[in-house]
Protein: Proteophosphoglycan ppg4
Amino acid sequence: MRGRNEASTIPLSIGTASGASALSSAQQLPAPLRELVQLRTQADAALHAPALRRELADGTAGPNAAQARDSLVAVVHAAEGWQAKCKSSGKVSAEDDARGEYCLAFALSRIGEFDGTSPADLPARLEDSLAHFQRAADLLALPQPPEIEAVPSVTRPQDPKRQGGAVDLPPVSAWVAEMLAEWARAQTTLAFSSVMAQGDGQAVVQEDRLASLLDLACRRNVQALFTPIDPLTPPEEATSASANTVMGNARLIRDLSSLLPFSRQPTHWSRRLAWATHVADVRFVAASMSANKLVDAASAHAQVLQNSKISPAERREVKRVVEKTLRRIAPFERTQGNVLLWLGRVMLDAVGALYLGRSEGFQEERRRRDDSSDTFGAEDEDQEQDGQKNDVPENDLVRETRQVLIRAAALFENAYASILRSPRSSRRKRLELRLLRRLEATYCDLEHLDNSTPEVVELRSQRIERAVFINDRLVALGDTGGDDEMAESDQEEADEEMAEEEADEDSDEEEERLARQFGRQRIV
Structure:
């Protein structure tokens, strides 16, 4: 993470400057379309209002929800009027026609959250929205979304399928980049709606349909991620909204993919790994760019060191700023470690299913054993021993999984070293414990990949030395044991690590918000 080139394969809009979208270019649009664009912008602002967020968190449909609904209805009416004008007049450009289609698609994709649409009717509303997104793309001659398995990856650079891969998408206007992200959101929401029952609000998973929908949602999100914004776009029109939407989509894709049951089918794991890699890339790069901002600020401050007449007081101030920056980088390193640990565990389950004959994931087995520790009997022990008799092969997937987990451990160790630079406090102790437990959990996962290969035997001996240190340090800190905390919510992580970087709406609470609106429950 100390290196600054890890995000180089992501050309996106994640690095776009934040700020409200301007309407300067809209002034050149025909009057009806200009009004439509303004209404869409107002509706988008209403959807992101903190007051609406608080209202929905309370499970109520109050005045802010009504305002959002009315704003979206106004967009639909204006868009339908613009469409009528386009049909009656042959003088509308394809780009203007497409922009109107986007405004209508946007409103249709969101209005179901506020107008009383039932979970059973939501998919049809979303399909209608997706048809308008597609028509806008056709008018703009946008390319098809790339195949996700061939996309370069920052979290899996050693994947043979991705080495040498490239995504060459033409640059687009800022509003088109925003449209691509919203299109991916609508596609992801359709996947979400597919797991809600017709009447009783319980989660129902139709495996083939969910997998197909997630495939397309992921491809759409990849397209939104990798489509660059035209460099001639006025700076005032640049917005971080597209990046925030892409990140929110990735989180929902992650949660929905976890609903698919464990399988030994290679095609199942090919898809799961592709989705997981995309999700990990988005989250990893977001943390990298946040950390890079801190590094840039510290580097600028340290320029004073080049002055030969620098005073001791100024030198001490630079040292203080650099040390503070290193401490502030620690949460982002921990976030990156969490991302790689999560990805490594998905890959580890793939190894277990494809090469070790396992019928459940490693973490599921651990949780099952923890939940039934009092009744864990001889038969279970025999089954566990039988499972351990399967030798771990040394192949591309095993090696790559091992490297991902080793990188996760290195990031946790970097974060731990940064935390040790901070003054002693109860908060520092809490963070130390958390990082040491994450390291311990990562080493436990690596143990599942041990075999008799000389290189792996050497790595195991090094890991044991580190594990002894971790155990001693945990004892010194008074650790009483407990979970590895991997189950802590992303919202909690966002509050602790990168609250200033998260959008109001595009956090893990997006899933809960959608569930409240459509299913009145959280997906489990």
